[in-house]
Amino acid sequence: MEKHEAIAALVALGQETRLDIFRLLMQAGPEGLPAGQIGERLGLPPATLSFHLSQLKHADLITFRRESRSLIYSAVYPVMNALLAYMTENCCQGATASCEAAAPSTCQPKVPHETPARARVR
């Protein structure tokens, strides 16, 4: 992954709604989700959802396909894996075994992740 690609992906994921969308699509797996379901699950109006999906698509983090009248969005796993590899490339001064050993205690949050508030409201 090139530096400018990593920056574009991190900028896209640095916005709360886009991160929520991306996490939802990662959880959905390769089959993805229709745009309407994404909007419903996250409580987003169509125009807002469209804007954020466009930003994620521009960063190559998601893709879509048309099925009948629906657009089905899915995460692009190779791009996410490349971003993770880029971010950990120099982890622990290049000693990847040290980085992997340190990950559970120093890199992983101890607090379980909670669903965003706007998704819980419904």
Write the layout of secondary structure elements.
Layout: H1 3-13, H2 16-28, E1 33-34, H3 35-42, H4 46-58, E2 62-67, E3 70-75, H5 77-88, H6 96-107, H7 117-120
Antiparallel strand pairs: 1-3, 2-3
Helix pairs in contact: 2-4
Structure write-up:
The longest helix is centred in the N-terminal third of the chain and has 13 residues, at 16-28. The protein has helices at 3-13, 16-28, 35-42, 46-58, 77-88, 96-107, 117-120, and strands at residues 33-34, 62-67, 70-75. A hairpin with a 2-residue loop joins strand 2 (62-67) and strand 3. Residues 104-113 have low confidence and may be disordered. A three-stranded antiparallel beta sheet has the order 1-3-2. The chain has seven helices and three strands, in the order ααβααββααα. The chain is elongated, with a radius of gyration of 16 Å. The termini are far apart. By secondary structure, the protein is mainly α. Helix 2 packs across helix 4. It has a single domain (3-120), classed as Orthogonal Bundle (Arc Repressor Mutant, subunit A). It comes from Methylocystis echinoides. Residues 1-95 form the HTH arsR-type domain.
